[in-house]
């Protein structure tokens, strides 16, 4: 372990120790509900690509905690989202997880019906009340945004713009042709861990040599347990180093995240020399998802909390349509490498969850390289505090 008494300007790491979050926050049912209310019900959540709802009337139900949300492509082709709740007495409107609404949204209980804008059209009753106003009884709206083909929702109708909560303002993948890509492979798994553990694992590379030997071979810097060159307190001294373990990017001769490091197609046009050299470019949106731009494809990985100790982990691989049209290309086979890495991360997070059951362990100690873990944990603390202040 290097002495931390000397570190150079621009160093990313933690120069002083930090405590991790309380262990109870990863298993306690009451705290889990607190996080749902303070974080997941107030932040943007990834739903799917827009072409998953291609036709007018197409809808799907998104479940987050105990909240059921209708995401609908209206007859005017505009995307809207509503709470799956009738304004009459609160009955569930739609029970099928997805489908097509050729007509209106009709409550199966008492027959109240709504158009695709969420406006109340009909409320059956034998007598008309003098103060009944249809305009005041539309469906409860949910904020929705489309970001270059990606569909997001936020349960707060007055939510801040989506890109304000993204670490690069939605611009990290500006050079990638996101709108024109199509999903070629999907991954979905229920993992036995709290949702925060997956993000914490994502946010450091101390685990990389032991958990990801194949990835550490592809990205030599990872063998040093570092995510970026600035993770080294003496990074300036190594700027002239030719050893790839002291430089960003992939190993020599490799261009992308694949079993042999070779791309499935020619690189996207429009990528900068820096984009090509890095081999992977990230855009992160806590708590829901991160996107990764590679030279030949894009991945989006997202989470959905299921319980204090269960999380749904999902991913999509997006390619150019012409790549997918190539009969010689097998997207599932090509995606296996990055899928393997995701699985390794999932097993690590589950191992972490099992250890947190110890009654002896109340909190942990973060190391210098875990500055992004600390940033994430501080963000969690801040969201909880802000939610309490707004009560």
Automatic annotation (TrEMBL):
Which N-terminal residues, if any, form the signal peptide?
A: none
Which positions fall inside the Rieske domain? 44-153
The UniProt keyword set, sorted, is:
2Fe-2S, Dioxygenase, Iron, Iron-sulfur, Metal-binding, Oxidoreductase
* Family matches, as InterPro entries: Rieske_2Fe-2S, Rieske_2Fe-2S_sf, Ring_hydroxy_dOase_asu_C_dom, Rng_hydr_dOase-A
Please, which domain of life does this record's source organism belong to? Bacteria
Enumerate the GO terms in the molecular function aspect: 2 iron, 2 sulfur cluster binding; dioxygenase activity; iron ion binding
Parts forming coiled coils: none
Record-linked CDD domains? Rieske_RO_Alpha_N
The Swiss-Prot or TrEMBL record lists the needed cofactor(s) as:
Fe cation
What PROSITE patterns has UniProt attached to this entry?
RIESKE
Protein name, entry field: Aromatic ring-hydroxylating dioxygenase subunit alpha
* Protein's organism: Halioglobus japonicus
């Amino acid at each position: 372990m290097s002495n931390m008494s000397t570190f150079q300007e621009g160093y990313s790491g933690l120069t002083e120790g930090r405590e991790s979050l309380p262990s109870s926050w990863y298993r306690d049912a009451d705290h889990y509900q607190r996080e749902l209310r303070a974080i997941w019900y107030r932040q943007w959540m990834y739903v799917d690509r827009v072409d998953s709802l291609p036709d007018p009337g197409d809808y799907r139900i998104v479940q987050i905690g105990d909240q059921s949300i209708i995401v609908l492509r209206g007859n005017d082709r505009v995307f809207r989202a509503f709470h799956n709740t009738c304004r009459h007495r609160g009955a569930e409107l739609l029970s099928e997880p997805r489908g097509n609404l050729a007509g209106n949204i009709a409550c199966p209980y008492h027959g109240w019906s709504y158009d695709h804008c969420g406006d109340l059209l009909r409320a059956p009753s034998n007598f008309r009340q003098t103060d009944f106003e249809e305009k005041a009884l539309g469906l409860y709206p949910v904020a929705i945004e489309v970001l270059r083909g990606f569909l997001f929702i936020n349960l707060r109708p007055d939510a801040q713009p989506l890109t304000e909560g993204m670490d690069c303002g939605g611009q990290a993948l500006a050079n990638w042709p996101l709108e024109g890509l199509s999903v070629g492979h999907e991954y979905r798994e229920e993992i036995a861990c709290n949702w925060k553990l997956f993000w914490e694992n994502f946010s450091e590379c101390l685990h990389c040599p032991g958990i990801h030997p194949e990835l550490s071979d592809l990205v030599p810097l990872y063998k040093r347990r570092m995510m970026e060159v600035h993770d080294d307190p003496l990074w300036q001294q190594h700027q002239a180093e030719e050893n790839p373990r002291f430089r960003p990017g992939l190993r020599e001769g490799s261009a992308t995240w694949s079993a042999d490091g070779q791309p499935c197609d020619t690189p996207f046009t429009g990528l900068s020399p820096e984009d090509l050299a890095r081999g992977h470019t990230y855009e992160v949106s806590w708590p829901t998802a991160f996107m990764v731009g590679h030279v030949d494809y894009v991945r989006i990985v997202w989470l959905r909390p299921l319980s204090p100790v269960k999380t749904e982990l999902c991913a999509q691989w997006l390619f150019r349509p012409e790549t997918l049209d190539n009969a010689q290309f097998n997207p599932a086979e090509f995606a296996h490498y990055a899928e393997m890495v995701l699985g390794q991360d999932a097993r690590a997070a589950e191992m972490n969850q099992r250890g947190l059951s110890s009654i002896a362990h109340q909190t942990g100690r973060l190391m210098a390289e875990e500055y992004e873990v600390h940033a994430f944990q501080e963000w969690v603390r801040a969201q909880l505090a802000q939610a309490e202040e707004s009560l």
